[in-house]
Amino acid sequence: MDAKDILGLPKTPLTIPQEKKSRLPKDSQRKPDGISREVYMLTGGLAPLMPSLDVSNLKRRTQSESEKITWQWLPFTNSARKDDLQLYHWSVDVIKYTDEEYEKYLTDPAWSKEETDQLFDLCERFDLRFIVIADRFPSSRTIEELKNRYYGVSRTILTARAPSPADVSGHPLVKDPYNVAQEIERKRALSMILSQTKQQERG
């Protein structure tokens, strides 16, 4: 007597029908175009988490002439040399204004025309190296004052000469105007950090 006799089960073995494995149509297993076989086998045909972009299809924004800052490759000589060797360096194209433009757009009670002319002459001679310009400037002006006057005048002339403000809205001098208060605060914070003692740094 076995377990089947005790449970009253028939002696014939019970046949369990096997489910047929469903096969996907061949069309669904076909490798999509544009995917290598190795990648398809590794991913199992799953879509990537991030869509792939063809960089060549992206549109590149072109700058208009009014949005560019012009640099020139200019010759110069070293006064310390006696052989008249001519060297070259990149020089920024400083904006020039007329007397009429100054009277119409650039008058400022804090600046005379003579001072402004001297500033722009030094900016052109020393390629906007404002530390050198401040050292050579005849009046007592801070670097921040010199920068603010130069960039303010340049921005005003650019806007005045443009057919409309939108034509120069992307120019760096217009888009990111010089901020005197922010520059002074930045230098003050930097000076505080640099003047800290080792004990203060540890604390």
Short summary:
This protein has helices at residues 3-7, 26-29, 37-43, 99-106, 113-125, 130-136, 143-161, 172-175, 180-194, 198-202, and strands at 71-77, 86-92. The protein is mainly alpha-helical.
Write the layout of secondary structure elements.
Blueprint: H1 3-7, H2 26-29, H3 37-43, E1 71-77, E2 86-92, H4 99-106, H5 113-125, H6 130-136, H7 143-161, H8 172-175, H9 180-194, H10 198-202
Antiparallel strand pairs: 1-2
The mean pLDDT is: 78
- CATH topology category name of the domain at 65-182: Arc Repressor Mutant, subunit A
CATH architect. name of the domain at 65-182: Orthogonal Bundle
Structural class, from helix and strand content? mainly alpha
Helix-residue proportion: 40-55%
CATH hierarchy class name of the domain at 65-182: Mainly Alpha
* Strand count: 2
For the largest beta-sheet, the strand count, sense and barrel status come to: 2 strands, antiparallel
Evaluate the radius of gyration. 38 Å
Low-confidence stretches: none
Specify the oligomeric state.
single chain
Strand residues, percent: 5-15%
CATH superfamily of the domain at 65-182, by name, is Homeodomain-like
Q: Give me the side-by-side strand order of the main sheet.
A: 1-2
